[in-house]
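hey so u asked for the seq, here:
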Amino acid sequence: MEITAEQFARIEHCLPTQRGNVSMSNLNVLNAILYVAEHGCKWRGLPKRFGNWHTIYTRMNRWSKLGVLDRVFEQLQQSQVVRIRIEAVSLDSTIIKVHPDGTGALKKTARRPSASPAADGPPRFIWLPRMLERP
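ran it, structure tokens below
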């Protein structure tokens, strides 16, 4: 699911212009994003032909926050370059860390004293009230 340079020319206006010393073209980044979407791999699992995965992820994250990806995918579908239909979104439990209280673990309960104090044994602490004033 890679797009060609001719197809990219149709949607190039949706992407921000590249400024400064850029090591990767927008076409290459877009093809890498499409690769991850198609194969469902991790960013670190991108083939080396796409370049540094962290650079691609950073640019994708920035585009996502700015709404660029929404415009790009809408334009890709309108020009019938790529047909994408998202039917379900799921999260893997290895991604989201749950607090131990939310895992269903048994909670510690209060110590229940038995009916006879002798069975409980000697007290573990002695509470002594303090006197505020000396007589």
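The CA atoms of residues 85 and 121 lie 69 Å apart. The longest helix spans residues 26-39.
lmk if thats what u needed
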